[in-house]
Structure formats: C-alpha cells, structure tokens
Task: inverse folding
C-alpha cells in the first residue's frame, strides 16, 4: 500500500470535498462521488477500468446503490481521491498540485492553530488530513488473475471511509476492534512490522516501511478479499509471506471472530 498525504480533516464543520487537482491533460471520472484521477498519458480504457473497480467495491451487489452510503459520504467529504499514475515522477506532480489546489483551506484551518495554543497544532492538523491512493498503469490487470487496482481502491475505501466513520471498530489505531483482531492474527501487538512472527500467525506482513495504521489497512484488505473469494486462485507461494487464509473456508475455520465482525450487517460489507 502506498500512502500519500492529502488534506482530510474531521474535527471541523467545513470539509474539503473529493476533487482531482487541476493538471493539464488529466482525465477525471467519478464513482458514487469519489473522483478517479488519471494523470496525463493514462489510456481511457485504464481509467474506465479503475472506475469500474471502484463501482464494484462501493456497490458490491451491483444494485445501483452504494452498499454503505455513510462510508461513501465520509470518503467523499474527506477530500480523498483515487489516482492512476503512468510514471513514478507523476506522484510528486500530483501531490504538489493537490496541495496547491487546497492551500487556501490548509492555511485557513491549520496555520492559525500554531498561534492559538490549541491542543491540536499545525503538524497534528496536517496529520489528520487523509490520503489519496494510487495505482500504476503497469500494475493494472484487465484480464484474468489478481488486479492491484482492486487492492489500492479497497485501501482507499477502508482507510478514508470505514476507519473514519467507524472509528472504534475500523479505526487505524491500536485500540480499535480491527486492530485487536489483527494482533490476534499475528500473535501479539507489534507497532512495527516484523521479519518473523510467532508460530501459528496467519497475518505476517513484513514491510518495515508500513506503520501500524498501514498494517491495519493491509489486514483489512486481506480479510475482505479472502472472504469474497478473490484470493482463491492466487498461488500460495506468492502471498504466504503476508497471508495464509486465502479462501473463505480457511477464514471461517481459523478466524471465526474476524469473519463474524466483517459480516455484521451494520457495516454493510457484502460478500
């Protein structure tokens, strides 16, 4: 998962609504209000594919309605967007443009906090703005097999949607319920990813650059896609360094508490 700082703030009444930055040649699409931003040079077929993927995530039963409108509203109001990059250098271009487009808002909301003695200072204010998630064109798979477009889109939905609206349940902090389930899945609490986990762990994410928050996002992604049967055909040798329960059957046998949590009707996650 790639995290990119953008500008989402939940502790004030005003919100930055999801909007792609103003970049010459950028193509923009929309999925239930969530903007999909294709950087210059990205083919239309790839933008269409990314939009279709996001549509399926937000409306998994494909009845034309968002499965969880509260989550969609939270995601849109956060200012977060889904981006498609053709080259790595486009990351910096996108980030800079997004910041410039929202600079007046950032100055209005965050800068005054430095002088007001508020408990939330400027750095903390910036930290509470959300992220945009991106996929690179070379990763996208329009044919059979696993498609990273799904992974990054789902990361955005859980990180900027579920984790914010259901803070105590899906929040990306060590006291949330999903965090407790994650710690059970890897044999204890580990603030940083480990190179080796206790025997019997089924979630063994080992990227040292992935924060505890990031680890929760990855865990949620693995759990939801496995319950949906989307990991069934992936070779175990390709994913076992991170995840062992790649089928719904393995999930129900080994992680019943996790399954029961994700299938709780109030979260409206469809399987």
Result:
């Amino acid at each position: 998962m790639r995290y990119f700082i953008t500008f989402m703030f939940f502790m004030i009444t005003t919100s930055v609504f999801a909007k792609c930055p103003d970049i010459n040649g950028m193509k923009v699409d929309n999925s239930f209000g969530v903007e999909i931003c294709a950087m210059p040079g990205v083919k239309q077929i790839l933008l269409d594919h990314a939009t279709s993927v996001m549509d399926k995530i937000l409306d998994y039963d494909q009845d034309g309605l968002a499965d969880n409108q509260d989550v969609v509203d939270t995601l849109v109001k956060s200012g977060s967007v889904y981006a498609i990059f053709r080259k790595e250098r486009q990351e910096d271009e996108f980030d800079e443009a997004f910041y410039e487009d929202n600079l007046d808002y950032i100055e209005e909301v965050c800068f005054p906090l430095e002088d007001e003695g508020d408990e939330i200072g400027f750095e903390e204010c910036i930290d509470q703005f959300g992220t945009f998630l991106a996929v690179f064109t070379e990763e996208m798979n329009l044919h059979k097999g696993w498609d990273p477009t799904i992974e990054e889109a789902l990361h955005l939905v859980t990180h900027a949607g579920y984790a914010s609206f259901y803070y105590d349940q899906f929040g990306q902090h060590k006291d949330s319920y999903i965090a407790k389930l994650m710690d059970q899945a890897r044999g204890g609490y580990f603030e940083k990813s480990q190179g080796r986990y206790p025997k019997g762990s089924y979630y063994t994410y080992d990227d040292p650059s992935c924060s505890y928050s990031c680890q929760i996002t990855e865990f949620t992604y693995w759990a939801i896609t496995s319950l949906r049967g989307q990991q069934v055909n992936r070779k175990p040798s390709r994913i076992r360094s991170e995840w062992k329960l790649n089928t719904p059957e393995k999930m129900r046998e080994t992680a019943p508490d996790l399954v029961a949590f994700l299938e709780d009707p109030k979260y409206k996650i469809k399987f």
